[in-house]
Amino acid sequence: MEDPIVSAAQHLPPELWLAILQYSVAIDNEMLYVGSPNPFISPMTSVPFSFQDTAEIRQNIGLRHKLILVCKSWHALMTNTLYEIIYLDSNAAVRLLHRTLVMTVGKSELGRHVRHFILGAATHEAAELLTAVFRCMSSIRTLSLSPHSVANESGGPINWSVEILDVLGRTCGPSLLKLEL
What is the pTM of this model? Predict the structure, then answer.
């Protein structure tokens, strides 16, 4: 005899599974919030976020990775959600994202699912790769750069090319609602 719970789960429409899965990975974090929770607090006078507060975001990204591995149907449903929040904390992470997005251009367009882009650390090498990465992302709502992404290990400024700023403005400009430095 078939287990009624398993049977019901197998017959649940994908739209309901997607709603359940999106609810399970929903995150309420000030860094990702694009509006002002209090209409009397201006973003210009509010306390800036701290990059120490990224643990919750990293845990949420880990949960998304785990859910995508459960089964083929969840993988298909969660792939877009997996790329919704990008947190990069090393040059290696920037290189991997660059490879993934550039290789999928014209196929699956994973970059267009990115809504929140957080750069925790960068060097001159990463700054050059980000030009191509931002070309793939047209729907970024929040862009957060840690102090470590605007200064190198010795404290000197990272040379962000004019091209990366131009690409960021042309590609992400229309959707960008929040820029935090």
Answer: 0.78
